[in-house]
Amino acid sequence: MSMATLKETLFKKIQEHRPRTTRLVKEFGDVKIGEVNISQAIGGARGVKCLVTDISYLDPMEGIRFRGKTIPETFDALPKVPGSEYPYVEGFWYMLMTGDVPTMEQTQEVVEDWKQRARVPQYVFDLLRALPRDSHPMTMFSAAIVSMQRESIFAQKYAEGMSKMDYWDPMFEDCSNLMARLPEIAAYIYRMKYKGDAPIAPDPNLDMGGNFAHMMGVAKPYDDVARMYFILHSDHESGNVSAHATHLVASALSDAYYSLSAGINGLAGPLHGLANQEVLGWTQDFMAKLGGKVPTEDELKKALWDTLNSGQVIPGYGHAVLRKTDPRYTSQMEFCEKHLPDYPLFKLVNMIYKVAPDVLMEHGKAKNPWPNVDAQSGVIQWYYGVTEYDFYTVLFGVGRALGVLANITWDRALGYAIERPKSVTTAMLEEAAGIKEKAASN
Ligand code: NMX
Ligand code: MLT
């Protein structure tokens, strides 16, 4: 008997899962899972449980689990690219989609499938070339994604008339096509913008991570850096801005191109993904002020306080959910300890890790004084020669696409509703707080 494809396995999983969701809604729809208070309504819905995903879960103390697996468990379980330390991104996609760890054969099926889907339409390159060259790379990335909307199989099938039960199928097709094309688009932006407008053609013999490194023009072990980076940045449950924005837009039955572009726009904010470029910017400015010499802990402390006292955040520190060091930070730190232990920038980042949490605790505002994923990622890129730090969020975006696209495929499979939370007025909150008489009209 021939092996089931990823799509066939996914369909089986979807059929098994649907009754669970239906039962919860039908029989237990009234069961309460939380309450909402005024500070949550004003403060970004922090901690409000109103999203459902099975792709990943974020525990405040332990950090992320992808399909129930911690980061080290994920790296251990998945099939590795021969001669590499890190797994195939394609196998990770299989795991995010189905919840199963694929065999090497199942992984190879996705590798081959993505190769068939990888051709980027010429008009995407034409569009990128038409944009001002000083556009931010995230603007270019988002524009390239939304420009491909005309390719959407979901939009086409929807226009023709399609049963709700079938929505997941063209959504999966669109998401797979996007995943197969994003690496070339990202690398093209990089080479066009920063490397003398000299794009490198894809190599059809390579896996996704290997091909990305090849198209970036960066030698080994950057292929492994790419695999590690994309997997680490893939998913952080559903409430973060990029995942939530993607899900929100998809909930209107907008296709994967519109939805991912929206998510990428959210990732481009400095409090979200852009923080990784801000970390490098902050660190480089600080080094420049010191004339390049290695700082003392006191000098570093002063620079951190100067940032806080000028009303700015310390990029790469703090988190809306996490209350410990982000395991994605730790995973990258372990990579650095192995591959670049004596690199001065790595040493400086470690020194910040030693000093910043105490400074943030003394400052007394941030609920989490520990580093997040963005505090460490730029060092690795810099070490391998990718020093153009305004490009870093595009790398985050390629990785994030894995998680958010797996999520919206399942959104369609489980028939999740159009998202529409309720808003209230300030006067209504004042009434609820008992500090204002009920007005005839709010
Ligand atoms: N530096 C200075 N102040 C901070 C920091 C920080 N790193 N983190 C939080 N605060 C402040 C925050 O601005 C807020 O101040 P105010 O009361 O004046 O509005 C206060 O502490 C309470 O915020 P929290 O509840 O701890 O954090 P929140 O959940 O609102 O925000 C972040 C989470 C991640 C947006 C926030 O910690 C931050 O701005 N960090 C720096 C930017 C960053 O690293 N972002 C990347 C997040 C990961 N990612 O890749 O997306
Ligand atoms: C993320 O990876 O999305 C960030 O850590 C932000 C978050 O989870 O809120």
From TrEMBL:
Keyword Ligase (UniProt): no
Q: Which Pfam families match?
A: Citrate_synt (PF00285)
Q: Which Gene3D superfamilies match?
A: Citrate Synthase, domain 1, Cytochrome P450-Terp, domain 2
* Keyword tRNA processing found: no
Which UniProt keywords are given for this protein, alphabetically ordered? Acyltransferase, Transferase
Q: What InterPro entries has UniProt attached to this entry? A: Citrate_synth-like_lrg_a-sub (IPR016142), Citrate_synth-like_sm_a-sub (IPR016143), Citrate_synthase (IPR002020), Citrate_synthase_AS (IPR019810), Citrate_synthase_sf (IPR036969)
Q: What class of enzyme is it?
A: transferase
Domain of life according to the entry: Bacteria
Which Gene Ontology molecular-function terms are recorded?
citrate synthase activity
**What is the E.C. number?**
2.3.3.16
**Record SUPFAM superfamilies:** Citrate synthase (SSF48256)
The pathway where this protein functions is:
Carbohydrate metabolism; tricarboxylic acid cycle; isocitrate from oxaloacetate: step 1/2
Listed GO biological process terms = carbohydrate metabolic process; tricarboxylic acid cycle
Q: Which family does it belong to?
A: Belongs to the citrate synthase family.
Instruction: Name the chain's protein.
Output: citrate synthase (unknown stereospecificity)
